[in-house]
Design brief:
367 residues, 10-stranded mixed beta sheet, 35% helix, globular
């Protein structure tokens, strides 16, 4: 069965390419736009040898260099991206993931990852497996401690303890994962005009950390789509493959909306006494869809520990949460059930928090 999912971005979305723009080195700001320099185009004006020599100097500034050579930005630019607010100094700017033609897009895997977390929480809660999962996690943490295993070696293992309990078939193998039944395409290209450079700050304990982070994000109200295919083989052979909870594949919208509701309630408490009034107002106005054909997802950079794990299901168990946080050295401030105490928020030109990152609405259009 093939469906189209229409995706509307609600708050700035950043999915990292792993690349960074470095102002003054490979990019320039002019008239509230970021121009990324194409070195191949630049070699049409000066030799590669000269460029390499000049860039090797400690005081190199690409803007001054272009001016000294009377080279127009438009003639050597690879990309032009608008800037939301101010981008001062020479910070690194996180680039959005792009295809081979340097066009931004939303990977289907990012959307599937958000769904995977939400559906996992939904099944655990509805099948009354919370207590069982908690016990399994505690046993594993104790086992890792007794075997003196380093946290780095067990980070992926601890997640599999939970996921395999719910998603695994008759074998603990990726080929027997329930969500293999759902295939998601990447989105079509999203033009650079639908992205902007945003000022991101870390909100922590009722204050903003003095750290400048700038990231290319897809703008709110941007619309795109992905295609989904459900592999009927997994459903028709669920008993043979050993899947226990295949019926929940029909409840993805319910699962995502329940996760979004729980997350929203948690964030409203976090911002209750905060000066970040506009972030709180964002969550107050964030409407959870009622129907079966629309749902919210929280994805990408900034969705945080609570958005990418079953952490919201563990909040009421101080002992287990403390064990997990201590073992993985995540809670250096000893916050316990109040962990995590920081959030990444989008700020305006004056540095005032405006909204969180990464919320989107999905509408299922049956074909």
């Amino acid at each position: 069965m093939k469906n189209k999912w229409e995706v509307t971005i609600i708050s700035p979305l950043h999915i990292s390419s792993g690349e960074k723009y470095q102002l003054g080195i490979d990019s320039v700001i002019n008239n509230s736009n970021l121009y990324v320099i194409d070195l191949d185009k630049l070699t049409n004006h000066v030799s590669a040898k000269e460029i390499s020599r000049e860039m090797g100097k400690g005081d190199f500034d690409i803007r001054k260099y272009l001016r000294s050579k009377n080279i127009r930005l438009e003639d050597v630019s690879l990309e032009r991206i608008s800037i939301d607010g101010r981008c001062e100094g020479n910070p690194e700017i996180l680039s959005f993931i792009k295809n081979a033609y340097l066009e931004p897009y939303i990977p289907g895997s990012s959307i599937k990852g958000a769904i995977r977390t939400a559906l996992l929480c939904y099944i655990i809660k509805n099948e009354k497996r919370v207590a069982y999962i908690k016990q399994k996690l505690l046993e594993k943490i104790n086992e890792y401690r007794q075997r003196d295993l380093k946290p780095k070696k067990t980070k992926t293992k601890i997640g599999k303890v939970v996921e395999e309990t719910i998603y695994a078939g008759k074998e603990r193998d990726a080929k027997y994962d329930l969500l293999k039944a759902i295939k998601l395409s990447d989105s079509p290209r999203i033009g650079n005009e639908s992205t902007a450079i945003y000022n991101i700050k870390v909100h922590k304990s009722n204050r903003l950390k003095d750290v400048k982070i700038f990231a290319q994000c897809v703008k709110p109200q941007t619309k795109t789509e992905i295609w989904t295919i459900k592999d009927d083989y997994f459903i028709q052979n669920k008993d043979k493959l050993g899947f226990k909870y295949s019926e929940y594949l029909e409840k993805i919208a319910d699962a995502c909306n329940e996760f979004a509701k729980r997350y929203r309630e948690h964030e409203l408490k976090f911002y209750q006494d905060s000066y970040s009034h506009e972030v709180k107002e964002f969550y107050e106005k964030l409407k959870i869809p009622d129907g079966k054909d629309e749902f919210l997802i929280h994805l990408g950079w900034g969705s945080g520990w609570l958005g990418m794990t079953i952490g919201l299901l563990l909040k009421d168990d101080k002992n287990l949460l403390t064990e997990i946080l201590d073992y993985y050295e995540l809670d250096k401030y000893r916050l316990g059930v109040d962990f995590p105490k920081s959030r990444k928020v989008v700020c305006d030109a004056e540095g005032t928090p405006k909204m969180p990152l990464g919320w989107a609405k999905v509408k299922i259009v049956k074909i």
